[in-house]
Amino acid sequence: MTEQSCRLCKGELREVLDLGRQPISNAFVRAEDAAKVPFFRLAIGLCNSCAMVQQLDEVPPNQMFHAEYPYRASGSALIRKHGADVAERIIQTCPRGHDRFVVEVGSNDGVMLKRLTDAGIRHLGVDPAAVAADVAQTSGVNVWKEFFNASTATRIRDEHGPAHLIYSANTISHISYLDSIFLGVDILLAPDGLFVFEDRYLGDIVNCVYFDQIYDEHIYLFSVRSVQAMAAQFGFELIDAEHLPLHGGSIRYTVARAGTSKPTAAVAEFLVRESAQGLAEEATFVEFSAAVDHIRTDLVSLLRDLRADGRRVVGYGATSRSATVMNYCGIGPELLPMVCDSTPEKQGCLTPGTKIPVCPPESFSNPYPDYALLFAWNHAEEIMAKERLFHESGGRWILYAPKVHLA
Ligand SMILES: [Zn+2]
To answer: What's the 324 CA to ligand 1 centre distance in angstroms?
Structure first.
């Protein structure tokens, strides 16, 4: 193990989980380009000082978040509803007549900002995924196709004035250089402004063995304790934490300039629970690592048994997290001949590293397989309702967290 230090506090980083060699999780390419997909080592470490859980190696951001980045927030009804709920809350807290300015970091296809546009609230999205940003712009949302950092923040402030709210969903943990993010927030945020961001929660990942939440894009796995330390380091303060059921369990963190607001009781309550769960202790991750290994053994043996019985199994949802599962478990086309996905950009391509063909959703029912391995488990309810006929005709879902089971 190499000696590495924490990206945030320079404390000692201890390796706690190794998921092996992994491809870029969103590298869906045609067969002729499959050999060109870059690989890296996916391993996470725990900082023994600020408790931030983070990747040991990292993929250069331009290999992940390029113009053709295929993720579309509006692809899921659940995410559309969440975007609408967030926008509604912002609109309610922006009384008419007040000239409020809202900036969203990682605005994707504008699923949230569209509502603010319609409500006449001054806003700006910042997102380097140009194709997604084009979708947002077509619906009237203002977007800069750039990475958010200190330099972008300065230009936004010069052009639009200070932001009263900087919001971000599932983006902050993707960014290695958090010092530049917080410097940007410091430059752009009004004195009484709030920085609100949502991200997948380490507590849920550990509790439910959601090891597939670990992939290249998620450089950090946030906990309330580590976010509190991070905010403090940059002159800010974590003043609220709210658990959200999204993405298998997320937290909405509210950060203000230090000393401007009193933290809610929720922050202290989370810290107590995290301490009881051992989220800052290596022993917790030893157990987690063993549970992950157990999932691999059980999942591969189930797929082999089904193949031996002549059963047809397909994957459902060519998600980024499916790359972690398939590559860690060594699941290739011999165990899983295809994965269905509704994203047009992924169809006709191969899954990263494991080279399984991605097919359009119509292939799923034509004919139905005997089993479907559900990679998009965070949308399980939505998907199972939509694919009711599959289950009614005798099909079974395979789920793998917290352990391998059928539904
Ligand atoms: Zn640290």
So the answer is: 25
Q: Output the CA 252–ligand 1 centroid distance in Å.
A: 21
**In sequence order, what are the beta bridge partners of 359?**
340
Note the helical H segments in 165-319: 178-188, 202-207, 224-233, 265-277, 282-308
Q: Hey, what's the torsion of the CAs at 326, 376, 52, 61, to 10 degrees?
A: 70
Ligand 1 ion: Cβ-proximal residues, 5 Å cutoff: 6, 8-9, 11, 47, 49-50, 52
- Alpha carbon of 229 to ligand 1 centroid (Å): 8
pTM, rounded to two decimals: 0.92
Residue with tokens 């309702």: 385
Kindly give the confidence (pLDDT) of every residue in the chain, 407 residues in length, as a single tens digit, with 9 standing for 90 and above.
Answer: 456 899 999 999 999 999 999 999 989 999 999 888 999 999 999 999 999 999 999 887 777 766 666 677 776 777 888 888 998 888 887 766 678 999 999 999 999 999 999 999 999 999 998 888 999 999 999 999 999 999 999 999 999 999 999 999 999 999 999 999 999 999 999 999 999 999 999 999 999 999 999 999 999 999 999 999 999 999 999 999 999 998 899 999 999 999 999 999 999 999 999 999 999 999 999 999 999 999 999 999 999 999 999 999 999 999 999 999 999 999 999 999 999 999 898 999 999 999 999 999 999 999 999 999 999 998 899 899 999 999 999 999 999 999 999 99
Q: What's the N-to-C CA distance of the chain in angstroms?
A: 40
Coil/strand/helix, residue 284: helix
Distance in angstroms (rounded) separating the CA atoms of residues 82 and 79: 5
Q: How many angstroms separate the alpha carbon of residue 24 from the centre of ligand 1?
A: 25
Per the CB < 8 A criterion, the answer to whether 385 and 407 are in contact is no
SS3 143: strand
What does the angle CA 364 – CA 209 – CA 407 come to, to the nearest 5 degrees? 35
